[in-house]
Amino acid sequence: MNWKTNWTQRLTKSTPALLLLFVGLAFTNPSLTRLHASILIPRADQLAREWAEADRRTIEQEAARATANYTGNRTETPDLTALSLLKTVPYLPSYLDRTKETEGQPFLERLALWKHRALLRVGEAHDATVQALLAKLAGHTTRTSYGLLSIFSTCYEGNARRYVALAGLFVELAEEPCAPGGSH
What we know:
Helix content is 55%, strand content 15%. It is α+β, with helices and mostly antiparallel strands.
């Protein structure tokens, strides 16, 4: 028996096992649902936390600026533009608004109450922010299946994060530019 015959026999005997392996790998090719749970939810949570931290800094800065203006007897109006750009709590009301609850209170007390409530609202908005981001990420995700493996691409803010998925695992590839707001 020569080496060619021996090799052919081994290949013939191992073909069913290789086919079963390939079929098994094809069935474990991750779906969009698996990507959603493994990649998109953690990414949406991370982005929501980053947004919340930036919003907290903005609220703290505007409150500090308003306090400095008030104690320096300056009558500069607050920068409502910065507050209107908050991502987790859009349309945050002005700290100068008077309500029945704050009527008659000095400005610094109203400001402290506003700041406290604004920071609470940023924390309370976390789940809604995550869900909104998750919907946006999922809507901008594409999957290209190659049988045994898939390539997922999520376009967000002009960059596409790409992943190769094989046997239930995701390996991140280099980011590449994509059309902002669109799918890759």
